[in-house]
Structure formats: structure tokens, C-alpha cells
Write a structure and sequence with these properties.
Elements (H helix, E strand, L loop, with lengths): L4 E11 L4 E10 L2 E6 L8 E4 L4 E4 L1 E6 L12 H10 L2 E6 L10 H14 L3 E4 L15 H7 L4 E2 L8 H13 L4 E3 L4 H4 L4 E2 L2 H6 L3 E2 L2 H17 L3 E3 L5 H12 L4 E5 L1 H5 L2 H7 L14 H13 L4 E2 L8 H4 L16 H10 L6 H15 L15 E11 L18 E11 L2 E5 L7
Parallel strand pairs: 1-4, 1-5, 6-7, 7-8, 9-10, 10-13, 11-12, 13-14, 14-15
Antiparallel strand pairs: 1-2, 2-3, 5-16, 16-17, 17-18
């Protein structure tokens, strides 16, 4: 939108990249942040009265399942990016478990082209670690990097073969790419469908112990130390995994990690209270209250770098089965901000500056993306949100094609009002679908 200007007047500007939390004006022009100051005169600019709202860098999600190609009945790049815009996300990184799998250059090129044609926010593909996600043979990492991938991952499946994992780290480092790992030891997890504990015993469901995750974390941080490659651990959920990450950091291992809103705010007792509701079936599973509290503390202190949604849409028919038979995963793009405001910011478990940081600046930094900042000259990717207004979560309110959210029927404090990408408004609350 070259030449057009938008002035956000008098908002609470929160920019963790500059440790900024102050009432200011922000001018978007020619696709970039043109100016941030106390009073800006911008003749001819569209004026948005931002008093009473937070103005922040657009959110960056490192872990989104857009489902296209192959599973368009669950989600498409168009619907998934509309959901992202409605949630304040201006950049999403799309996981590789599609059909066909992006394990070569042509498939990555297709995703990039579809995102350009139909997406409303920035989309960066994540290439598969192994061909077909089969965990046997490495994908064409170099040629995928040339087409635009920003990381490699077999997310949804663990890389059980330790030697393949080592080679993946070695090759990824040659192309300055992080390896994103889904930590699950299949031999330990077995048929587990929820956290192993008192709740799973009462419900009669097969349990999934913490060590099923932390054993793989321990292996992979050692392989990262051996290779010097960048390791990013997806959806951390256990205390033991956090300890392994802290130990690796003390040794200088280049490891980053993320946590989901649902692992920060829900536990296995919520599964029990839900009455076998499959909208509470996630991978990794919701853990104990002790794990949940440890995750919150680790996010606040910085052991956990950022929040990622693990937005995993599933069709209603797939989830409308017995708990043990349902697929893992919940949607998350549209509820991340209100869930975190309601569950962490409102009860003062986290500061507003840190909340914005873990949703924008920190994930951008983890994948070396040039976003997550309101510095002058930076891309004008911006979100305007309220920390006091509420969001009623209803199935009809979603822009995503799928409705498998654990927050349905809840009213959460916190609401996204507007989202801009490169200075173009892509979402405004109450004005219909994001565009």
C-alpha cells in the first residue's frame, strides 16, 4: 500500500525490542513504521484513535498447521491466515505435515505461491526433516531453503532415529536453519492419549508419562551440543524437559523452545472435568498442575523463549468420536491473545511487556525473522488490542474452518481490535472476515 498512511494516535505502545512501554503515536507509511513519537502530525493520513488500547508489533507464530495442500477440508492457507490476522498474528510458520509433504523444492514453491495468492498475513514454510515424514531419509534441505523455508521439522512425528537427527542438525547448520523437534519417544509413549497420572487412572485412559518427552529432549540437546546446530524444541510441556534445557543453556548449547497457551493454562484435570471432550486432546498432552506452574515460571524467567499456538485444525467429524480414537490437536490462532491476557496478564502472572515479547519479538528472534519490532523503518506489521475488553469464544466466531478449541463457551478478557501487515489493514473486529 505504497503512499497511504495510517496514524495510530495516543495508544500504549509496547515494543519489547526497545524495552518501550509508553503512550505515543505511531505512523505507518509506505509499508514501514515511518515514525514513533509523542505527537505526530500526518496530514492526509487515516487516523485510528488508539487511546485505551495497546499498540504492539504483530505477533509471530512459529508453529501453525495450515493443512494446505491435502487437507483443505480442515483448513486452507486462506482461512488459516484469516484466523491468524484475527488473532493479531502477522507472520506464521507453516508446519510440514501436509499432503504432499514439503520435502522438496516444488512443494515448497507451491506453498509460497498459494500464500502469496490467498494469504492475508506473511507465511513462511517449514520444510520436512525427512522425506514423507517417514524418519528414514533426509529431505532436500538446500533446495527447500532456496525456495524460502525458515526451518525444518517433522512436527507431529518424532525423529526416533538418533543418527538421522544428528545428520539433520549437521545439514541444517550448513544452511543456517533451526531444526524444530517434536519430542516424543514412541517406545515410552506407546498408546498413551493423555498425561499419565491420577486423572488418566480415574478416566481409564492410557497414560503418557513426562519422560516420553524429556528423554528425547535430553538426547537432542546433546546432539545439538555435538554439532553446534540450532535446535528449537516445540511445545515444551514437562518440568523435566525444562531442566534439560536449562542444563544445555548453561553449557552454551544453541537451543530455543516454545510453549503453547493451552499448556500454560490447562491441566489433565481439565480433561477429566471436560467429560472426555476431545477438544482437550493435545500432543503433547495437558500435564499436571505442577508442570503447568513450572511452564509459567519458565516463560516469565526466560527459560522458555516464546509462545507458539500449535494451531491444529480438525474437522468436527474427526473429533466427534471417542477420546482415545480422536486425533490430537486444537486450534489456537484466534484465542492465543485473549487466553493469555485472561489467564496470565489479568492475574498479574506476567507483565504486558513480557507478554508482547513472547508473542512477537522473541519468536522473530528465534527464527531470525525481521519482524517483532516497531523500530522506525521496520515492516509495518502491527496489532492493536485491548487488555480489558472481552472475547466471547463461540464456534460461529472463528475464521478458521475448524472449531476444535478448548476455550469454546468461555468469555476471555482481552480482545484483538485491528491487525496490519506491511501497513495494510488485514483485520478489523466487527467488519467481517479478515481480508
Amino acid at each position: 500500500m505504497s503512499g497511504e498512511a495510517v496514524l495510530l494516535r495516543g495508544g500504549r505502545v509496547v515494543d519489547p525490542s526497545r524495552n518501550l512501554d509508553q503512550t505515543l503515536d505511531v505512523l505507518l507509511k509506505d509499508g514501514v513504521i515511518a515514525k514513533v513519537d509523542e505527537k505526530i502530525a500526518a496530514k492526509g493520513a487515516e487516523v485510528v484513535e488508539a487511546a485505551g488500547f495497546v499498540v504492539a508489533p504483530g505477533f509471530v507464530d512459529l508453529h501453525t498447521h495450515l493443512r494446505e495442500p491435502g487437507f483443505e477440508y480442515k483448513e486452507t492457507i486462506a482461512s488459516g491466515t484469516r484466523a491468524a490476522a484475527a488473532g493479531g498474528f502477522t507472520t506464521v510458520c507453516a508446519m510440514a505435515n501436509t499432503d504432499p509433504v514439503p520435502d522438496d523444492a516444488p512443494t515448497v514453491a507451491f506453498i509460497v505461491r498459494r500464500a502469496r495468492e490467498t494469504g492475508v498475513v506473511r507465511v513462511f514454510p517449514i520444510g520436512a526433516v525427512s522425506k514423507g515424514l517417514k524418519g528414514v531419509e533426509l529431505s532436500e534441505i538446500g533446495s527447500m531453503k532456496a525456495e524460502g523455508i525458515v526451518a525444518i521439522s517433522d512436527d507431529g512425528k518424532p525423529i526416533a532415529n538418533g543418527n538421522l537427527m544428528r545428520r539433520a542438525l549437521e545439514y541444517a547448520s550448513m544452511f543456517s536453519l533451526p531444526v524444530v523437534v517434536h519430542e516424543e519417544d514412541p517406545s515410552i509413549v506407546g498408546a498413551g492419549v493423555m498425561n499419565e497420572g491420577w486423572a488418566s487412572t480415574r478416566l481409564g485412559l492410557a497414560g503418557w508419562p513426562n519422560v516420553g518427552e524429556s528423554a528425547m529432549v535430553a538426547r537432542d540437546v546433546q546432539l545439538a551440543a555435538l554439532t553446534g546446530a540450532r535446535l528449537h524444541i516445540a511445545h515444551v510441556s514437562t518440568r523435566e524437559s525444562l531442566e534439560a534445557i536449562r542444563a544445555a543453556r548453561r553449557l552454551g548449547v544453541p537451543v530455543t523452545c516454545e510453549v503453547t497457551p493451552h499448556h500454560l493454562l490447562l491441566t489433565d484435570e481439565d480433561v477429566a472435568r471436560s467429560g472426555y471432550d476431545t477438544r482437550f486432546k493435545m500432543n503433547p498432552p495437558l500435564r499436571s498442575e505442577a508442570d503447568r506452574a513450572a511452564l509459567v515460571a519458565a516463560l516469565v524467567e526466560g527459560t522458555i523463549d516464546c509462545v507458539a499456538t500449535d494451531h491444529a485444525p480438525h474437522h468436527e467429524d474427526e473429533k466427534n468420536v471417542e477420546f482415545a480414537d480422536a486425533p490430537f490437536g486444537v486450534t489456537g490462532l484466534e484465542t492465543a491473545l485473549p487466553a493469555l491476557v485472561d489467564g496470565l496478564l489479568a492475574p498479574r502472572a506476567i507483565t504486558l511487556l513480557r507478554l508482547v515479547e513472547v508473542l512477537s519479538t522473541a519468536p522473530a528472534r528465534a527464527f531470525a525473522l525481521p519482524y517483532g519490532t516497531l523500530a522506525e523503518g521496520a515492516p509495518a506489521d502491527v496489532v492493536l488490542f485491548s487488555t480489558t475488553k472481552s472475547t466471547p469464544v463461540t464456534p460461529d466466531g472463528f475464521q478458521s474452518r475448524s472449531k476444535n478449541s478448548p476455550w469454546i463457551a468461555r468469555t476471555l478478557k482481552g480482545r484483538v481490535e485491528k491487525t496490519w501487515v506491511a501497513g495494510r489493514e488485514v483485520y478489523a473486529r466487527g467488519s467481517g472476515p479478515a481480508r
